[in-house]
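Below is a concrete protein record.
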Amino acid sequence: MNKWKKKQPATIKPYKRQSLAGDGYGGRAWFFLSRAVTNIRQNVFVNVVTIGTITLALLIVSLFLLVFVNLESAAENWSERVQVTVYFDKDLTTQDQSVFREKISALSGVSGVSFVTRDEALKRFKNRLRGQETLLEGVRPEVLPTSFEITLKRSHRDTASVEKFVAELKRIPGITEVQYGEEWVRRFNSFLNFMRLLGGLLGGFLVIAVIFIVSNTIKLTIYSRRDELEVMALVGATRFFIKAPFLLEGLMQGIAGSAISVGLLFGLYEGFLHNAGSFLTFNPAASGLNFLPPEYIAGLLLAGALLGFIGSLTSLKRFINV
């Protein structure tokens, strides 16, 4: 028996890749999410700077939105004053009132029609001259005309629609005079168009500035970990495997920044309502100053998430070819 046996080579077992925290898409998603959270914990300062930048940027945008929404609300209230008045040189019977009411209501854009008697017209006249009622001594209701006051729908309060409506009114037989404050309507609609144009320009500028600032801030986060990205690429990690945690990280940064900005905006709004009386001559709460509607808040949260995601995606292009 040969004492010296030839040594057999050791058998090498094939490597079996471990699953990413479980099987299927759910396991991969959990792995990428946990990796993103780990990245945030390991780079707290850079992530705080990124979230702070997103918060500040969206706070500026949300402040602009708050002002714009309340200006639109005030404009809507003012637009209710766009009213057309039809005058008659004689007193109308009940049947005449019904006939004219039906003819006026049949026109396009009519929201409401109310009849004003001569007595009611005199009463309103006296209320406007409160403190100087002696000027109306001896004035009888018969000297004032009866009228219909017509309110228009919101979509028919612009200058062109009002002028078209007035032209149709004048074609109704029996109407003596039509008044609607032509100059006031024209100036009001010009003001509305100017505010919308200004709001669109400022809003577009803010959005571009926010995207630029957030993208460059997130780029600093990616740049601080460029060595990690290069090593992962050298050992054969796929593009998606490298990018996914960073994209989720940007998504979480954006959501956190937008949520904080909405919270700060609400705090500023409440603080303004409770302290504005000390430096303003009117009460903002009584004047109808409102916070952002729910759909605007949801839009800000979504915008924050998109900013973080797109910022991470564009920043990764420098290190990973997509």
About this structure: The two ends are 66 Å apart (CA to CA). Residues 12-19 have pLDDT under 50 and may be disordered. The chain is about 60% helix and 5% strand.
